[in-house]
Design a protein that fits this description.
binds zinc ion; globular; 6-stranded parallel beta sheet; alpha/beta; two-stranded antiparallel sheet
């Protein structure tokens, strides 16, 4: 074979090699903290852990996790009330002689544990107390930096142990936001396919199919999503883990993050702290679905029935800010091509925001 032919073969075949990192033990259900010792044994995690949690989540779940594991392990608690680079440094120092990490709480806590685990190269267990976004199972973590948020690459959790009784007790707003984050997979996939057609970006069919199916199952079950229901917590947590797995298969957040996520990040920059991540992604999904020519009214109806916001007003943001966020979306992570790169005008952006209020 000629050198050129070998080179071509290498490019065609060997470029297909992928390294997929997936969670290994996933335990979701009622009162599953009892399974934690078995999970640690199964994964041969060692005897010393740093347990990262928030003040209220420590009381809600962290202390119980500690009790369950204390019989033959040393578990050192660490409070992470916010996520910041100095706090991550502190947590890294506290974890210096830990064999593994446990993150018990919401997004900030899980992300802190995820980054510390990545930086120190130690495994970590994700113990979510709310099902508000797919970060509970993904490899990406978001940290506040000057002028917005920065998304960092890390490892996915080695195990996820999610107690649905605890998740069901979290405010419904969080669960509804988690649903909206999963529903946004629809337009994330449409954007990925668009980027394939327009820019030749490679699409992982497995990741795309799993991500889309996850959103479909959730929409099909939308009538079952109710406040304080353990069944709802179970459906949504499984969907969030499944979205995380789709991202792990793809090796990027592409299957679960398209233009609607860029809109969400833009909105967070312009009106920080108003909408939850999933909430603004849901609103972005309605708009993106319209631009893709899909069933945007169906998406809006599902979000409404779940109890997720569907207009800027619902999250206390004025329409003009939402218009700016739509126009800014293409400049957030510009290498990620989406429908917002197709030349959205200010007039269209204004009409799109008004469309959200239409009966
Ligand atoms: Zn998301």
């Amino acid at each position: 074979m000629s050198a050129d032919a070998i080179k071509l073969l290498k490019e065609k075949v060997f470029d297909k090699s992928r390294w997929m990192q997936l969670p290994r033990d996933v335990v979701i259900g009622h009162d599953v903290f009892q399974q934690l010792p078995s999970v640690c044994d199964d994964l041969k995690l060692g005897k010393k852990a740093l347990l990262i949690s928030g003040k209220s989540t420590m009381e809600l779940a962290g202390n119980r996790v500690r009790e369950v594991l204390l019989s033959n392990r040393s578990i050192v608690p660490f409070f992470a009330e916010e996520i910041s680079l100095p706090l991550i440094k502190k947590a890294e120092m506290a974890a210096a002689d830990a064999d593994f990490l446990i993150g018990v709480g919401g997004g900030r806590v899980i992300d802190t544990a995820k980054i510390v685990s990545y930086n120190l190269d130690r495994p970590f267990i994700s113990v979510p107390t709310a099902a508000s976004h797919d970060g509970i199972a993904s490899a990406r973590a978001s940290v506040a930096v000057e002028g917005g948020h920065s998304s960092l690459q890390a490892h996915p959790p080695l195990a996820i142990v999610a107690d649905t009784a605890i998740i069901a007790r979290a405010p419904h707003r969080l669960l509804a936001a988690g649903c909206a984050d999963v529903i946004s997979n629809y337009t994330a996939i449409l954007d990925w396919e668009l980027a394939h057609r327009v820019k030749g970006e490679q699409v992982s069919e497995y990741a795309a199919a799993l991500s889309k199916m996850t959103a479909e199952i959730l929409v099909k079950n939308a009538p079952l999503i109710k406040p304080s229901s353990e069944e709802s917590a179970w459906i949504v947590t499984k969907a969030l883990v499944s979205s995380g797995v789709a991202m792990s298969i793809a090796g990027s957040s592409r299957p679960a993050s398209g233009g609607e996520h860029k809109f969400s990040h833009a909105l967070e920059r312009l009106a920080p702290g108003k909408a939850l991540h999933g909430e603004s992604c849901g609103i972005g999904t309605i708009i993106s679905m319209y631009l893709h020519g899909g069933d945007w009214k169906g998406i809006r109806a599902s979000l409404k029935s779940i109890g997720a916001p569907v207009t800027p007003k619902d999250v206390g943001i004025d329409d003009a800010t939402a218009v700016e966020a739509l126009l800014m979306a293409k400049d957030i992570r510009p290498e990620r091509f989406t429908i917002f790169d197709m030349g959205l005008t200010r007039e269209s952006a204004e009409n799109l925001v008004q469309m959200l209020y239409m009966e």
